[in-house]
Structure formats: C-alpha cells, structure tokens
Amino acid sequence: TGRTAVLHRGLVTGNLSLSPDGRLLAFAELNLAGNYYEHTDIFALDLAYGGVRQLTHGRRARDPDFAADTSLLVFVSNDRGHNNLNLLDLGTGEITALTETEDHTAYHGPRFSPSGKWIAVGVNRPGGYADIELVDRRTGWTIPVTHDRANDLSPAWSRTGRYLFFISDRTGIFNLYAYEL
Q1: CA–CA separation, 102 vs 49, rounded Å?
Q2: What is the DSSP letter of 173?
Q3: Which element (helix H / strand E) includes 123?
C-alpha cells in the first residue's frame, strides 16, 4: 500500500531480526539508568498484537537473531570490557554464554544458519583483523571463514545454507561476496 506506520517508539539501535514465523521482531534499544549509565537490551515486538517484551536486562546486549525454530536468540553482549556471544532460550529465559573472550575480540552481526547448527558472525580481533567466523551453537567451537587484512562484515546465509554472503573491501572498495560451504 505504500503506507508506513510506527511500530515502536524508542532509541532502537543495531540489527533487527524477524522470527522465521513472522510473529516477532527482535531489536536492541538504548536505555538510560540514572543520570549517566547507558546500556542496550534486547526486546521483542509482537507484530500481531503490538506488545513489546524486554528479553535481557542490563546486559549491554545488541545484534539479536532468531534460530530457525524460534526457540533461541543469539546476541552480542559487552560485560566488564569483554564482548561475547550469548544464547537466550526463549522458552525458559535462560541465557548461556557461547563464547568467553579474555582479549579485546569484538563480535557483530551474528546470524543463525538455516539448520541452526552454526552461527556466522563478524569478528574484530586484536591486530586489526575484521573477519567472518562460524561458531558451533552447541560447543562454541569456531571455524574461520576469512582471515586476512580485508574488512569482512555483515554475514548472511543463503536460504539453503550452502552459501555465506558477506561484504568485504578486499579489492579496495566494498563488494558483496559469497563463500560456498
């Protein structure tokens, strides 16, 4: 129809994730605590009824993504200077750390594979590397997809999971690439 509508008013930031069944939209929102403390948390908007539910509390959480079966949500958190991937069980509300970094690694844009076994994620590692990695959702085991001086960003899966798309400046300008798994 060409119409636009406000679904939620707030300081929404980062990536959005639509649940595979199309019912929920997950997002991060900036919250203010007191006069000076800012943090982001993950929220879910019910698209049928318009209600918003806060899923994390004080986690400095961002970049949510739903698993294909909508049972889990992966997100990035920042706690005491450490950036990690976490899994939120949407049935129980339990949060599990998938990674536990001790260096200055930074994660961004995690995305579940169509099978739900892997999570593709952008990783900034010490030394200036911006690469793409696969993380096994059950073990946290990682496989590098790229490891070079190029800036590799924004992983996204093909519908079948055969390809992993990402953006890279490996030729000097940003282009779209496909990695066949």
Answers
A1: 42
A2: S
A3: strand 118-125
**What's the pLDDT tens digit per position in 69-81?**
989 999 999 877 7
- Nearest-5° Cα angle at 175, 173 to 141: 110
Which of 47, 46, 42, 17 is CA-nearest to residue 30? 42
pTM for the model stands at 0.92
By the 8 A CB rule, do 22 and 71 touch?
Answer: no
| Residue 40 structure tokens | 């982001």
* Cα–Cα–Cα angle for 93, 94, 99, rounded to 5 degrees: 130
CA atoms of 145 and 97, how far apart (whole Å) = 22
Beta bridge partners of 138: none
Report which of 114, 127, 132 is spatially closest to residue 176, judged by C-alpha positions. 132
For the record, the structure tokens of 157 come out as 């899966």
Residue bearing tokens 């909508």: 70
Distance of CA 180 to the CA centre of its chain: 21
Residue whose entry in the numeric block shows the structure tokens 């490891």: 147
Q: Are 95 and 56 in contact (CB under 8 A)?
A: yes
Return the pLDDT at 128.
Answer: 86
